[in-house]
Write a structure and sequence with these properties.
The chain folds into two domains: about 100 residues, no CATH class; about 70 residues, no CATH class. The protein is about 20% helix and about 30% strand. It has four helices and eleven strands; from the N terminus they run E-E-E-E-E-E-E-H-E-E-E-H-H-E-H. Strands 7-4-3-1-8 form a five-stranded mixed β-sheet, covered by helices on one side. The chain has a three-stranded antiparallel β-sheet with strand order 2-5-6, with no helix packed on it. A hairpin with a 2-residue loop joins strand 5 and strand 6. The protein is elongated, with a radius of gyration of 20 Å. The N and C termini lie far apart (about 45 Å).
Length: about 200
C-alpha cells in the first residue's frame, strides 16, 4: 500500500472576516494511493488533525477542499475522510510506502511559475536564475517554503550562505548579467537589504 502524505500548516489570518477554503492539490496522488492529510491549526500549541482518504475515493478530483472554523475541520464537496489519531497515522506510515511528504502553507503560492527566483552567492553576486521555487529547492536541496520565506524577508540562508529574491516584473534588467549584485538589485527594487549577521 502506498501513501501520499501532506502536512498543512494554517497561518493566523491578519484580518478577521470570511474564512476562505483551503485547497490541497492531488497532483501526486494516483488512484491506487491513499492520501494522509495532517492539518496543524496552531504550529506552537496544536491541535493537529489527521485524515485518511482511501484509495479510489478521490478519483476524478484535482484537489480536496476544507474549511477551518473554531478549531474544527470541515471537508467540502461531499468528502468524508476517516479521522485518525497520531498513533494510527504513525502505524499506517510504518506499514506502507510513503511516496511524498510535504508541508504546505495554503496562503502562500509556492508551486506555480508566477515568479522567477534569483540566487545570489556568498559575495552577493548573481549566481543563478530559476524558473520556480520548486526548481531552486530541487537544485539546492532546500524546502520551497524556506526559500519563499527568505525571498520575502530578504535574509540570507544561514545553511548555505546564499540569498534569494523574487524577480520583479516591473524591474527591467538582463537576467543573464551575472555582474548584478544583491545590493544593486535591492536598489532597483527600492528595498532595504536584510540583516546579514
Amino acid at each position: 500500500m502506498s501513501i501520499v502524505k501532506e502536512r498543512v500548516v494554517l497561518r493566523k489570518r491578519r484580518r478577521e472576516g470570511g474564512r476562505t477554503p483551503h485547497r490541497i492539490k492531488l497532483d501526486a496522488v494516483r488512484e491506487s494511493d491513499s492520501l494522509l492529510v495532517e492539518i496543524v491549526i496552531d504550529k506552537k500549541y496544536g491541535p493537529v488533525y489527521r485524515y485518511l482518504f482511501a484509495p479510489g475515493s478521490l478519483s476524478g478530483r484535482q484537489g480536496v477542499v476544507f474549511r477551518e472554523n473554531g478549531g474544527r475541520i470541515y471537508w467540502l464537496g461531499g468528502l468524508n475522510p476517516k479521522e485518525m489519531t497520531n498513533d494510527e497515522a504513525e502505524a499506517l506510515s510504518t506499514q506502507s510506502t510513503v511516496l511524498k511528504k510535504t508541508e504546505r502553507f495554503p496562503d502562500a503560492e509556492l508551486t506555480g511559475i508566477r515568479y522567477n527566483v534569483l540566487v545570489f552567492g556568498m559575495h552577493d553576486s548573481l549566481v543563478a536564475v530559476y524558473r520556480t521555487l520548486g526548481d531552486v529547492a530541487a537544485a539546492m536541496n532546500l524546502r520551497a517554503e524556506a526559500i519563499d520565506k527568505l525571498c520575502r524577508t530578504k535574509r540570507h540562508s544561514t545553511e548555505t550562505g546564499y540569498s534569494f529574491r523574487y524577480k520583479r516584473k516591473a524591474i527591467d534588467f538582463d537576467v543573464t548579467d551575472f555582474t548584478l549584485t544583491l545590493s544593486r538589485y535591492d536598489e532597483l527594487c527600492k528595498r532595504k537589504p536584510g540583516n546579514k549577521n
